[in-house]
Amino acid sequence: MSAIAIRDVRKTYGKTEVIHGVSLDIEDGEFIVIVGPSGCGKSTLLRMVAGLETITAGTIDIGGRVVNQLEPRERDIAMVFQNYALYPHMSVYNNMAYGLKIAGFSKADIQARVEKAAAMLQLQDFLDRKPRQLSGGQRQRVAMGRAVVRDPAVFLFDEPLSNLDAKLRVQMRLEIKRLQQSVGTTALYVTHDQVEAMTLADRLVVMHDGIAEQIDTPLAVYERPATTFVAGFIGSPAMNMLPAEACGADGLKLANGEIVKPSEAPLPEAGRQVTLGVRPEHLEPASESAAELMLEVSAVETLGADTLAHGHLIGVSNGDGELVARLPGNAKVNAGDRLPLAIEPGMAHLFDAESGKRLGKDASGARPFRSKASASAEA
Amino acid sequence: MEKRVSFNNRALPYLLLFPQLAVTAVFFFWPAGQALYQSFLRPDPFGLSARFVGLENFRYILTDPLYLQSFATTAIFTSLVTFVAMAVALFLAAMADQVIKGSGVYRTLIVWPYAVAPAVAGVMWMFMLQPSIGVIAFYMKQLGITWNPLLDGQDAMLLVVLASAWKQVSYNFLFFLAGMQAVPRSLIEAAAIDGAGRWRRFWTIIFPLLSPTTFFLLVINIVYAFFETFGVIHTMTSGGPGRATTTLVYKVYADGFVGQDLGSSAAQSVILMVVVSVLTVIQFRYIERRVHY
Amino acid sequence: MVEKRGVGTVLTHVALILGIGLLCFPLYLTFVGSTHTSRDVLSVPMPLLPGDQMVRNYTVALTSGVGVGVAKMLANSMVMALGIAVGKIAISMLSAYAIVYFRFPFRMAAFWAIFMTLMLPVEVRIVPTFEVVASLNMLNSYTGLILPLIASATATFLFRQFFLTVPDELVEAARVDGAGPMRFFKDILLPLSRTNMAALFVILFIYGWNQYLWPLLITTRGDMNTIVMGLGQMIPSADDYGDWPVTMAAATLAIVPPVAVVIFMQRLFIKGLVESEK
Question: What would the pLDDT profile of A166-176 be if each residue is shown by its tens digit?
């Protein structure tokens, strides 16, 4: 039995459908991150799980009960909000205790639970303070404490770190992960930040325009993006996308007429319009003769560890030939250089030009159900 | 603006709304409907029955020279009160805006008249300006100024204008001062560097930037002079001498309660309702606009 | 801040002091008038410094006044002002809560019904309102003094405005915490509205205290008079010299409560004033 089962859930506002049937099974204790650009429906999906939005069609099942018609309090969930949503007039203690009080816990029980959570989150010294007397990170911890004390079946996180500065975000990211692992509670986490998504998730749900484009472990999403959208969204700088035409066994004809033949990549039938995807980190400098792609460098960004060479394929002046290569930090490249590049073996991705779907034998697509064994990628 | 989430509860919202809607229905819609209804009726001389006369009451009052006169009186009264109250407040606010030391004390001393009821203001000013016992009236006489508001309509008008404007200065002052303090200091400094003196800075920088406040106060002061000065007029002049200070609101009262001419009074009420509605719409549109700033 | 020269600053202060002097003179004179004998006040010009009849005049005013003692009228005014302030705040908070936090049929209709009352001050509809109150047997009663004046939209709007600024996530958090609508109202919204309630209270108290026309119409018995309207009837007319000092003592007493509220709760007062005009 899974902790949460989402079956073909849809959401319609008036006449517009914003979520077009998402299905997802979450195992007990799993950390699932829903990631996508703003407006993709990720928050709506989370809020439907929380009971803050009605479910237009489909079912959501938490711990074996269909919760569609239940109030949030009856769903055995706790939620951490983007703006923390701490009650400004209550002390930290009362913020954490409020839900327990409503649920009718005894005073002693409430105290024990709040103190335990406070200890876990290093909030013992702040229990009497009001939220406005706390720093952003502390408020964030109180918000988490409020979720922890209830000991719910599921934690729901709605972009909880987006109000923090970059440094604090990294720190809180680790704390959230540690906390979730120590209490072992199933977590559903929404973010638009791919780094947060990759680092936190046991499994990722990449959403786009109300559809779950891919559901898989972070590494699998990175290595075998199911669609061009996923390929472009996960990874930074984004994957290079070159339109090409398949020429049978010869390889692929690029916009500049040159033919590349990515090794090991399954070649589609001749004449098919495809998109060749290569991550910047999988392009490496090659000798002029071994070059698969010729890049005319237009700008160089030196980042220390890496050097990013931006430019376009020689012979293609429009956007179709734009390319970024991630080179070693000590690479000597200048704007205006001609840079011969080769694709690392096995690192080319092929997508159908029209549907954007991944082509080839390892095309996984959106896999809604997975076995538990492969689910826990993180150790 | 709407809330993203809402409680779904069938009966509760109606229960919550009930007290206010009940009060509104009984003391607002019922009387307002009543006024509308009566404005089309004319009671017989004994008040036993009434007959439907259509727009006759309106035709009657709109051609009644006394009503038209009170329209004119109201216009003069309102303009004077608005002008005096706003000019004095603007001056005091401009001064207070310059002051750093003691500004809190000054503000308190300027703000308190707001709390004085119009009727009490009338009594206080009457005490100063009553021709036979008033101290100010005495000194005016010494200076050779003829002053007799009990007999002279213009003097009476001046009397009610002074008392009404006096009370409204505080309100205008607060809003003008807040408006001035919202003017960015850097603008004033820039103007100073451009060589504008204090006087010039005020009229070319601060005053134009205050225009939203000024317009807002204009509407508020008109509404005040129209509807809230009944107490001043009633305590000081009772609309006299000879109708010189009978404003529209005073006339509704005088015709309805003293004269017992209900049809006419109701028609006057309806006309006033239209006036207030127009003023409210102006005010509301202005507020809408202010939100977009 | 542009630096000011010495003379300019002095002139500014002088102008302010003169202005304030003019503004405060009526109050001062009223007070002086309440401390002399009737004869001194009637002798022109009356003295401009306080006299020694204060105790006598105030005692007379409080106990006998003109017909009814001012003490009784002050109590009536207090009941009316408190009733209006508390009543308005209570009913407007509830209705604003319903309008902002619930979706239900006729929601907008209710909103507009309340909104329309913004347009019509009681002065405009006095005659029919009087008839309604008379037919409900509310003449000479506190209910009659209070209820018709709490039918106004201003407070509802203020609370609606404020509720709309309360973050949505707070309601959501409360719902996740298991709070139902009334619990959310009591535990979260009410405490958060405290400042707004207090600010509004100050404004409404003054509004209620200063009513003149309405009590004038519906109180025909002296013992139901409020101080402001009662004072209006204490002005000696031109031909009878009356007891001006007692009238002035009553005037002073009528002013003290609302002025005290403004002065001692100035911050709330200004907040209330500014917000209730939005």
Answer: 888 888 899 88
Domain check: are A31 and A152 in the same one? Answer: yes
Q: Chain C window 182-201: which residues touch A at a Cβ cutoff of 8 Å?
A: 183, 187-188, 191-192
Q: What is the pTM of this model?
A: 0.81
pLDDT of residue A199: 92
Judge whether residue B34 has pLDDT over 90: no
Q: Which domains does chain C have, with CATH numbers?
A: 69-276 (1.10.3720.10)
Separation of alpha carbons C105 and A369, rounded Å: 42
Region for residue A193 given its phi and psi (left: phi exceeds 0; alpha: psi -120 to 50; beta: otherwise): beta
Residues A221 and A334 in one domain: no
- C-beta atoms of B256 and C126 within 8 A: yes
Complex ipTM = 0.86
Q: What's the pLDDT tens digit per position in C194-251?
A: 888 888 898 899 999 999 988 988 888 878 888 888 888 887 765 566 678 888 888 8
Tokens describing residue A308? 């990013």
- d(CA C72, CA A139) in angstroms, rounded, equals 54
H runs (alpha helix) in chain A: 42-50, 92-102, 107-120, 136-149, 166-183, 194-200, 218-223, 228-233
Helix (H, G, I), strand (E, B) or coil at A263: coil
**If you search the block for the tokens 């012979």, which residue do you land on?**
A315
Q: Does C169 touch chain A (CB under 8 A)?
A: yes
Q: Which residue of A has its CA nearest to C194?
A: A89
Q: What is the CATH number of the domain that holds B240?
A: 1.10.3720.10
What's residue B39's pLDDT?
A: 80
> Do the chains contact at C263 and B9, CB–CB below 8 Å?
no
Q: Is the pLDDT of residue B223 over 60?
A: yes
Residue B54: CB atoms within 10 A of its CB come to 10
Side-chain half-sphere of B135: how many Cα atoms within 13 Å? 17
